[in-house]
Amino acid sequence: MTHATTVTAGPAGPTRRVSRITPVGVFLWGLRIAVVAVILYGSYLSISSGRLTGSQWRDLVVFGVSTGSVYALIALGYTMVYGVLRFINFAHGEVFMVGAMVAFYVANGLATTSLWVGNPVVSLLIVLASAMLASTSVAVIVERVAYRPLRGAPRLIPLITSIGASFTLQYLVRGLVGPSTKAFPRVEPLRGTFDIFGLVILRSQVVVILAALVMMAGLYLFVERTRTGKSMRAVSEDPETAALMGIDVNGTIVKVFAVGGAMAGVAGALWGLVFPSLNFFSGFLPGIKAFTSAVLGGIGNIVGAMLGGVSLGVFESVGPSLVLAGYEIPAFSQLKDVVAYSALVMVLIFRPTGILGERLARERG
Amino acid sequence: MSQVTVPPAPIEVELRPAPAVEMRRAARLGLSGGAAMVLMAATGIVATFQARMAIDPILPLGLLFLYVVALAFGWMAGQPPLTLEGFAPAKVDGRNISAGALAGGLAGLCVGVLVILMTVFDLRGVFVELSPDLIEVLSFGLPVAVAVPIIAAISSVAGALGAGMHRLPVRIRRTLLPALIWVVVFSLMTDLFGQLFTGLSIDWMTTLLYPRRGGPLTITGAVIVFIAFLALYWYLAGRRTKLRQQVAAMPRQKRLRWSAAATVGLLVILYFVPKVMGPFVSQILVTAGIFLLMALGLNIVVGYAGLLDLGYVAFFAVGAYTAAILTSPQSPAFSPQIALIAAIPFVTLAAAVAGIVVATPVLRMRGDYLAIVTLGFGEIARILLNSEWLAPYFGGAQGITNIPDLQIGPFSFNTPQDYFYPIFLFVVIAAYVTLALQNSRWGRAWMAMREDESVAEAMGVNIVTAKLSAFVVGAILASFGGALYGAQIGSVFPHSFDIVVSITILVIIIVGGMGSVPGVALGALVLIVLPNLLREFSEYQFLFYGVLLIAMMLKRPEGFIPSKRRAQELHQEEVSQDAWLEIYGEAGATNEPVPEGQT
């Protein structure tokens, strides 16, 4: 390299850089404006067409909130692990899937007994507990086998390992229980609707939303109020200093994985109530969506995960009918996942710090 | 402790005895190995491979795989600890072997427990593969009470053998192991070698090794292969390093001439490959070649530039669909029906545009977020191609069929054997481009960016152009793969562009070695050819990939044929030094004299 080429970038100070209009900046602003315009015009078209009635819109929103709360529960695992280890635990979607699988088999076993009909609350609690146990164990085993030996490795290494773990879990489950799609048994008392302040809502959706809220509140209190929660926050803030203060860093990380896994297990059991079909690949999409929720809410932020999950759920449920139907796209429900992935891409490109802001002590990246 | 000053240069240090292997660790490894073996049985791997014989009447492949796991865990359990500074080199003695035996025995007991559970309970309601056949296979048809101790004993012996390998002198180990591996290769690849011998018209070899046509390797065959390779490796053992030194000592001119001669020789051999190998193997090689082409492209994006692209398959799809639309008469909206060769510039252009479209929004993103966004792009592309909405342009789920074959001048390419040559040509071009870029200005910018983006930028690397160019070059290589794939298969469907393709390519470059061209070539050959040749294997292909991905990242993140620079980056911290500090701390705690104090 000659001297002439090395000095060219010289006088450009930081202020000039920011104010300069770059082609990339123009492209990104163009993209932003285009996306907003497409969404607004599509919504205008579909609302003015009056295709759906008010109650249909409301149903879509409620459905979105209930799926969104499941996403939120899964998102907690991503957010907490990202908080302490700064990496995306790609296998978390599969931890959720294992929970859902176990919930299916336990529910299926119970469905033939008198307990299922006689005492549905107890049987649902059994289902929930076994799903939590299974997901927690899987999360902890994955941490022990695949992630712990990699502390301090370059950042992409644990990410690639977690992709491997995700694949391994998927195909292990496929090998163990077969590739067929399983149907979750019906829970009789949860069929039908509740009438809450004039809102008619499916019972299963009410249960899912309530259960998610309870778990979320419990987790919030756990992290904010208990000693273990405090040590988790300390490790997420600064692992070295936490270790100097006498906190068992590895033990705390295991607990973070365990708590995240337990939440994913609850999500898995609740998933069966909303979407009664399940196979070995069922964890992939909810996992991606939950990760989107975590980023949307601000990664490392527990309240944000709830907010992000619900927003994504509603957006995904309302979006196709609101935006895509406006453009008269045939079979727009096929593009439901495109909406979710677009939300993911847009959030990561334009607002990687999320709605409520990141709670990360150290810089990402 | 604090008074101890480090002497400037310790002259003679009395070495502390090396730590011996730990039995607790061996037990833990044994249980992990047991879990692995139980999962192998429960996912059906053992039963599936049982039908195939490794060595004809005595050793079925299923059981071989099962007990190889015990052997591997025994090897790990018996591995002497790292020799640390200030410690005597670890000795391998009976304790290591008993550690191996313990690990193997425990692993075998786990399998025994599985057999007992299977006979007592009917677990098939949940675990579909736990059939009575599996009990039969695992217990050798014996009653359970007899079978369980036998399983534990075999497994224990396997573990002890694995641990015992540490006792063998290095030269013998380096000879014995490859010879054994070749025996397994010959028993797995019966079709491949059978075809090879027929193609070379040395049928007597088939008669010798696989007397039943298309059948398994016999004991005689196994012994012949074993002895032949034993002799070969024994002969090579000392000479390989000497040869390498000789090559290194050669004057540049002479070395270039030799490598040119070797390249020509290789090309001549490759010219005959499809003729000798027949259509079946050629088809597999063509598939491997297409994957290799894509892997070389991803190698630039991930290996050189350090941008983990999980939606790489989208560029493959762009290439395949662009070529299909331009060449096929069945293309729904726009069908100019030009020749594939004439379409290649448009494919390149489309791929470059796609590369820029994907890369521009992610310019400011780093590492993990970039991976997820690219994954999102890849999935969006697949769903859109599959949708009713765009079906008038891309054919929806029905795809685009009737893609004409490649035709260059008077040559028409129809069979897999024909396609071997153009694909090979593209692979050579891609490999050349990759190697040429490695030491170019671009290549250096990419690697600087991979190592530290901020520092690279501060040093004058234009991150925007570096990222865009990496994505564009990678996209173009993948699109060539796609165009050839479409022409060779004759049709393109959206479901061929699943996320698993992206992951498969990622596994190829990680196993081979990120940033290393020979490594990527090896990875593609092994990971694509193996599952295609072994029908039983394809069922467990992705499970294998997943496990391989984890294992590689844990044990050998630089891959099997690493690029020197990448390996250095990944092993920046001195491993032994870290371990030394750990032990030093423990020694201090027990108030024993620390070695540095005693000069």
Oligomer: heterodimer
> How far apart are the termini of chain B?
15 Å
Shape assignment of chain B: globular
Largest interface: A-B, 60 and 55 residues
Strand tally of chain A is: 4
Mean pLDDT of chain B: 82
Q: Shape of chain A from CA axes?
A: globular
> How many extended strands of chain B?
4
The percent of residues in helical segments of chain A reads over 70%
Q: Helix count of chain B?
A: 25
Task: Please provide the ordered H/E string of secondary-structure elements of chain A.
Answer: HHHHHHHHEEEHHHHEHHH
Largest sheet descriptor of chain B: 2 strands, antiparallel
Which percent band covers the strand fraction of chain A? under 5%
pLDDT averaged over residues of chain A = 82
CATH domain class name of chain A: Mainly Alpha
Global Rg of chain B: 28 Å
Poorly predicted tracts of residues of chain A: 1-16
Specify the helix fraction band of chain B. Answer: 55-70%
Provide a short characterization of the protein structure:
The complex is a heterodimer of chains A (about 375) and B (about 600). Chain A has about 375 residues and is mainly alpha-helical. In chain A, about 70% of the residues lie in helices and about 5% in strands.
Please provide a written account of the structure.
The complex is a heterodimer of chains A (365) and B (599). By secondary structure, chain A is mainly alpha-helical. Chain A has one domain (40-350): ABC transporter involved in vitamin B12 uptake, BtuC. Chain A is built from 15 helices and 4 strands. A two-stranded antiparallel ribbon of chain A has the order 1-4. Chain A has a two-stranded antiparallel ribbon with strand order 2-3. In chain A, strand 2 and strand 3 form a beta hairpin. Chain A is globular. Chain A starts with a helix and ends in a 15-residue tail after the last helix. Chain B has 599 residues and is mainly α. Among the domains of chain B are: 12-167, no CATH class; 274-282 and 303-505, no CATH class. In chain B, 69% of the residues lie in helices and 2% in strands. Chain B is built from 25 helices and 4 strands. Chain B has helices at 23-42, 45-50, 61-77, 94-120, 132-138, 144-164, 170-188, 190-199, 203-209, 219-249, 252-304, 313-327, 340-359, 367-386, 391-394, 416-438, 441-451, 453-458, 463-489, 499-512, 517-533, 535-538, 541-555, 564-570, 575-589, and strands spanning 53-55, 59-60, 407-408, 411-412. In chain B, the strands form 2 sheets. Chain B has a two-stranded antiparallel sheet. In chain B, strands 3-4 form a two-stranded antiparallel ribbon. In chain B, helix 11 crosses helix 16 and helix 12 (313-327) packs antiparallel against helix 13. The two termini of chain B are 15 Å apart. Residues 573-599 of chain B have low confidence and may be disordered.
